Write a sequence for this structure.
């Protein structure tokens, strides 16, 4: 019977369709490699742009949220009506004590942050840092990678962010000098570096950590605050015994402790001033770049299919199925896209080696992998219209027989 | 007489136009046997291209039957017609005949690949057929690197390599000079006879009829005359 000879079973037919489509896609791409390489290069440039935007978004986001996202805590307690803004929140020691007494709270630690400290370096250069006051070994205190944690009380000791050490050459055991405005005067404080923590950027600056008392002494202060002796607390980090009961703990905290509001870590990050707007801007750029990519690739493949109408007509007239014609187009688009994205990935890696550390580019594996997956999808997505067009070509019309 | 490869019975193809329904092919009947090479001739608009499109299973008749190898095209699904074109029909067109990114050899092998019959023996047979057609030195050439005549010969090889029942040629000499045209049709006719295929060539150039066994003349959609006598056929070619 026509189309169904005995040795030509459906499975074999599917395999033959696939291999023949792959054969035709490869042959056409290879024999027109100059033209297809140009398309791959356009995709490579789009990939380069998207990967850099993704890295920039990650880097900028990291600069804002790194410290908070690495907290060993599930909830952050703010002053009520502070809109979850750390710098707008002021809590007292009573709140801290009340929170620590609550059932379900494993530990709680105060966080006091100031983003205006200036670290003086031996040369004439300075390094801006976020000065963070936390209780040693309590939520808020970063894990120490090298050395030890600072002592509590008035000890003039500090644990510094590894990024500060990398940028300045400061080592554990060194004495560093902080310049801090006290009222209208500049004062200088010496702190001994006793440990290094992993990257802990906060407010776009690497951080240095001290005890709450030391923080209160050395932090920049206005005239009215000069006589403060008790460390002001911005927020309190809460580590729960059972992190699964997040909502229940939020309710317990707000019902038992007066004048507070509670947020989880993602909410806290999203409310860092400028964070959402910044990430939204970067993501919009990435989406528009991808959209342009889809249109450019779609346009190219549509023009290519229009040029190939007679050829597809011949293919169909001599017995090629629609599935094979469509699959050949799809495989060709995938091949060109994969080559483009691979070139783009390579270019991104090479360029990233030459970017100065002041540009906040962070190539996070997960974000980059997601960007690559999206980039791989834009080819087939852009070429979808052309594939449907190819499948719909009538051999009779294509060969001008009608 | 050998087997009937193609039988056309009372075929009508109608089209709706602004001025009403017209019959592009009007009640046409004929047979073509295996090993027979037939020319379909007639002026423009006579219905020969429409007839060829129906024989190629690219167009379905409004009524009547087209039977290839004992199977009626009208009873086939679209999927079966695609399979029929692949397995039972060889086709050469006026132009845009070959796949531009495949070499001469790959273009011929494509028919074997489409039918899942490509193997080492098939590759050798393809190369031999092209060599017989005088293209032994052109196996690795792309269509763009060959002349029109050479491309037509590759198309002939492609139309025959999978041993189809019916070989159709639509104005195969349209883009060739006279000498090349005669060579191509002579080769075509030789292979049709040698391989016992049924061949139909649509042409407006009556000089090409000297190589065919019969001439079917169409006018206004009707089959008006069948030339079977050798002398009559040769006389057609001389414009008599």
């Amino acid at each position: 019977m026509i189309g169904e000879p005995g040795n030509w079973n459906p499975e074999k037919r599917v395999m033959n369709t696939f291999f023949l489509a792959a054969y035709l896609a490869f042959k056409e791409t290879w024999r027109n490699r100059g033209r297809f390489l140009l398309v791959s290069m356009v995709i490579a440039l789009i990939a380069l742009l998207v990967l850099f935007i993704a890295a920039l978004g990650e880097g900028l986001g990291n600069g804002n949220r790194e410290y908070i996202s690495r907290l060993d805590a599930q909830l952050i307690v703010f002053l009520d009506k502070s809109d979850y803004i750390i710098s707008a929140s002021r809590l007292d020691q009573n709140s801290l004590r009340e929170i620590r007494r609550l059932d379900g709270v494993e530990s709680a630690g105060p966080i006091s942050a100031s983003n205006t400290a200036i670290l003086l370096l031996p040369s004439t250069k300075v390094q801006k840092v976020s000065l963070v006051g936390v209780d040693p070994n309590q939520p808020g205190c970063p894990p120490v990678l090298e050395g030890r944690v600072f002592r509590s009380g008035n000890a003039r000791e500090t644990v510094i962010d590894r990024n500060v050490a990398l940028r300045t050459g400061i080592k554990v055991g060194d004495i560093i000098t902080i310049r801090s405005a006290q009222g209208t005067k500049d004062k200088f404080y010496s702190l001994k570096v006793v440990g290094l923590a992993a990257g802990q950027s906060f407010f776009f600056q690497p951080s240095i950590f001290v005890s709450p008392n030391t923080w209160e002494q050395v932090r920049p202060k206005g005239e009215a605050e000069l006589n403060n002796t008790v460390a002001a607390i911005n927020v309190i980090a809460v580590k729960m015994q059972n992190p699964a009961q997040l909502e229940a703990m939020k309710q317990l905290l707000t019902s038992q402790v007066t004048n507070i509001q509670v947020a989880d870590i993602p909410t806290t990050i999203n409310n860092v001033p400028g964070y959402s707007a910044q990430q939204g801007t970067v993501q919009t750029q990435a989406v528009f770049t991808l959209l342009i990519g889809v249109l450019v690739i779609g346009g190219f493949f549509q023009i290519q299919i229009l040029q190939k109408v007679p050829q597809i007509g011949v293919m169909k007239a001599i017995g090629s199925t629609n599935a094979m014609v469509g699959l050949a187009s799809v495989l060709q688009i995938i091949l060109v896209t994969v080559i483009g994205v691979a070139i783009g990935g390579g270019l991104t890696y090479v360029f990233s080696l030459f970017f100065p550390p002041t540009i906040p580019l962070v190539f996070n594996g997960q974000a980059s992998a997601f960007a690559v997956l999206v980039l791989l999808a834009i080819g087939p997505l852009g070429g979808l219209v052309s594939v449907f067009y190819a499948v719909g070509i009538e051999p009779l019309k294509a060969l001008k027989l009608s | 007489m050998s087997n009937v490869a193609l039988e056309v019975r009372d075929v009508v193809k109608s089209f709706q136009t602004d001025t009403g329904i017209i019959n592009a092919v009007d009640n046409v009947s004929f047979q073509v046997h295996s090993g027979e090479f037939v020319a379909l001739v007639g002026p423009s608009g006579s219905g020969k291209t429409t007839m060829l499109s129906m024989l190629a299973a690219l167009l379905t008749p409004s009524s009547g039957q087209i039977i290839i190898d004992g199977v009626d095209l009208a009873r086939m699904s679209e999927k079966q017609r695609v399979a029929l074109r692949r397995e039972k029909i060889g086709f050469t067109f006026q132009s845009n005949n070959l796949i531009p990114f495949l070499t001469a050899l790959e273009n011929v092998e494509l028919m074997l690949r489409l039918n899942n019959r490509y193997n080492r023996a098939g590759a050798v047979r393809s190369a031999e057929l092209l060599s017989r057609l005088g293209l032994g030195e052109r196996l690795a050439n792309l269509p763009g690197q060959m002349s029109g005549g050479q491309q037509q010969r590759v198309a002939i090889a492609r139309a025959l390599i999978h041993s189809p029942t019916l070989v159709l040629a639509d104005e195969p000499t349209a883009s060739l000079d006279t000498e090349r045209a005669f060579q191509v049709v002579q080769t075509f006719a030789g292979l049709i006879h040698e391989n016992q295929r049924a061949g139909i060539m649509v042409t407006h150039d009556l000089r090409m009829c000297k190589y065919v066994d019969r001439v079917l003349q169409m006018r206004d959609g009707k089959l008006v005359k069948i030339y079977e006598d050798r002398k009559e056929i040769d006389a057609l070619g001389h414009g008599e």
Notes: The two ends of chain A are 29 Å apart (CA to CA). Chain A has two domains: 10-64+276-398, 81-258. The longest helix of chain A spans residues 33-69. The CA atoms of residues 162 and 198 of chain A lie 5 Å apart.
